[in-house]
Amino acid sequence: MPLSLEKFSDAFFRDDFSTATALAEQLEKEASSDEEYDYAINCAAKVLLKQGKVKAAQNKILESNDNHGLKLFLEFLTTGKAKPLINYKTDDIDTLIYKAQTILLSKIYWGIEHVESIDGYQDPDLVLEEVFARLVKRGEVDKAILASVQSMELTLEDQVLSHDIHLPIIHEQIINLLELSSQAKYDSTRAKLYLLKARIFKDREAAGDAEILFGRDNNINGLGETYMQYAKDFNEEQYYEKAIENFKLAGNEIAQGFIFEALASNSLISGQINEAEKCFEHAESKLNNGGIFEFYGLEVQRISMLAIKGKYQSVKERVHSLINPNVPSFFVAQAYQILANTMIQLGEDIDTAKAYIETACDIFKQLKRYNQLLYTQNVYFQILLLEDDLERIEKLGREIIQLSTRLGNEELKASKYLDLAFVTIRLSLEDSSLNEAKITEATDYFNKAIQLYQDQDNLMGEADTYQAMGNMFTGIGKLEEALNAFLQAKKLYNECEAKLQAAITDTLIGILMLNYVVLNAQTYPIAMRHLETALVYFNSENLYDLIWKTLFYLADLNHRYFIESSGKEHEETIKNKAKTYYLEMLVAVQDYEQDAPQLLASSQNSLVGITIKDAYNKAYQFFLTIGEEDIARKFKQSQN
Amino acid sequence: MNYSQAQAERYEQLIADFVKNESKAKTAAENCIKGLKKLRLAKSFAQIDDEILNLSLATEESIGFFTQILNLEAKRLKFKEEALKSLKTENKPRKLSAA
Fold it and tell me: A287-319 burial, b for 16+ CB within 10 Å, e for fewer?
């Protein structure tokens, strides 16, 4: 091998992207034949691909007249078109690896039927098996091992029901590969095996070994991957920063993007919406250079973010523009799921929402994405709970229990106890048989769920259960029990710093006091305190939908207390508070509607919570009552 | 990267293990190819799991349904036992280091 080629190989396998790029440029300059030139371009494109700069890699490879395999692979990664590569006949090892990966990815994202429709009958694992044997025979052990690592990583995305069969075989395979790696040239190759072992078997020591081996190879990118794993798989979140630093130094864009995505997701879980948005913007700037999977993955997250912020009109527009035949089915299913949720939030046709969610379930089932299927079936279940089709509710509930048992998802099993509690109460309400025995039965289900969550040290799950319990007790008029359950939920949410959920619980407490409790000098301040606490948080995170609703509840609370306070000393103060909150609500609704001009019309039949029309009617009545007709008219005008 | 004393020692151990394994590399390569075949077989066999799931999702509870499920479960168990047995006899897991 010529010296510069050997140097390139050293830099490439040790993820030293800047050196590899410089050497590829040198090879390009020194090329004295078409063959050498094409090879240099191939080297440069491969480095860009490893850095996650898929589009740049595609532009680079187009400079050469050869390299059809890599060209077609990059075409697949940027457009999703797999057929040209699948039908490309070749014996070239690199192209066979690309082909196998293309078939595997297509199966995961589009499904087996799509792959067969484009003649993807070749078994990718068989292709990789043959490639592996050829590479070992040629002494290219590093490449053989890395191809195996990639294939095992993709296997983990798939076949989740059979992991109990796969995992022992994969474990043995990793041990064999580690033995084989004694013949590998680079410590980085061995490190990647340890990293895979750490990821699959949650083996922290193996990750530590990867760090040592990457360090010996001065592999900054590999160290970044190890730190990312410490943070993601072993909850050592302090390593995120170190991982970002390393990826920045290495010039790995895609990995930086994935870290910011993880940080955005963590911020969302803890209710820091603004922080999540910032992280997401960083993720966007890094992943925009990626291919089709990064593009649609980002778009789905963008839509989720809009949904969380209550910008439902934008959600609908973006989902509709996302759904087209070229988009991988996996992302379409996710979009359908968000759309169904949005329609429910807007109080739109529930049958259409059900059709969307059923389609999402069908797609996930076809793709064998069982974890996603389970989650979507749960959303479907929640939608069914809004209606009275108890037979369907029970049937779907059974399906979810079966699937969660197969997936060993204890958390979901616990959540099913929650649902069973709801169904028990619902069934009893339907046939008017609700009695103390039924309430005890439902409470037992809640307690079982709480016990399961406690066994798993899952504070969030426990908090969610208490919140659901509070909702149920509110619905059947057990107000003291409801209040206790909500307070317990809030305590737990605060313990796990879940600010959004804690604020929602505050709102629920406020609504409970507002709707079911006689307002007096004791109860009114409690309701005020909880609603105001929630409002401070919603304002800080610009959650427009929740802001106007909470302002309405505050206005309504003061409106009602004003009526109760007739002739009393504080009457005027309470009246002014109601007035202020109604007017603030008017402004908040206008802010909210700037994003969604059609919301007022579409939310008239909202099944969930208050509608803008109802809120305005109440405000109108209030201002008429206090003789301020001019202001009352503002609420009438705003409805037209 | 600055190594701690423990990391430096661990590196020496890892390298010693790799050197020790050099003589086994040929067998390891053969075992890897066998492992790939086994993984491929496991994947094709995993269709049984999809079948079981789809059956249990689609079929009402009846004796016929349970018989089908039981047959498939038995088939699956047999495969799993065989796969694990062959792993134990062909490839006894080896510890890579004394640590």
Answer: bebbbbbbbbbbbbbbbbbbbbbbbbbbbbebb
Structure tokens at A23: 């050497």
What is the C-alpha to C-alpha distance for residues A497 and A508, in angstroms, rounded to an integer?
Answer: 18
Residue in chain A closest to B78 (alpha carbons) equals A165
* Whole-number Cα distances in Å, A86 to A60, A77, B48: 22, 13, 27
- Please answer whether residues A222 and A207 qualify as being in contact, where contact means their C-beta atoms are separated by less than 8 angstroms: no
**Structure token digits, residue A574:** 């309470």
What's residue B64's pLDDT?
Answer: 57
Token duo for residue A111: 């499904």
Angstrom distances, CA of residue A276 to CA of A45, A264, A273: 33, 4, 5
Alpha-carbon gap, residue A266 to A580, rounded angstroms:
36
Query: Which residue, A168, A520, A161, is CA-closest to A370?
Result: A161
In 3D, which of A331, A257, A356, A400 has the Cα closest to residue A108?
A331
Looking at the predicted structure, is the pLDDT value of residue B71 above 70? no
Distance from the Cα of B67 to chain A's closest Cα (Å) equals 17
CB A89: neighbour CB atoms within 10 A?
A: 5
Q: How far is CA A596 from CA A334, A551, B63, in A?
A: 22, 19, 54
Chain B: residue whose CA lies nearest to A126: B40
Instruction: Round the CA-based radius of gyration of chain A to a whole number and report it.
Output: 29
User: Is the four-CA dihedral A405, A409, A413, A418 of positive or negative sign?
Assistant: negative
Are residues A453 and A462 in contact, defined by beta-carbon separation less than 8 angstroms? yes
A-chain CB neighbours of B18 within 8 Å are 181-182, 190
Cβ pair B53:A126 closer than 8 A: no
CA distance A285 to A288: 6
Of the CA atoms within 13 Å of residue A612, those in its CB half-sphere come to 32
For this complex, say whether ipTM is above 0.85. no
Residue B9: closest C-alpha in chain A: A212
Mutation site for A-interface testing, chosen from B54, B57, B79 by largest number of A Cβ within 10 Å = B57
The percentage of residues in chain A with a pLDDT greater than 70, rounded to a whole number, is: 96
| Three-point CA angle A56, A61, A65, nearest 5° | 155
Q: Report if pTM > 0.95.
A: no
Count of residues making up chain B: 99
User: What is the C-alpha separation between A22 and A24, in angstroms, rounded?
Assistant: 5
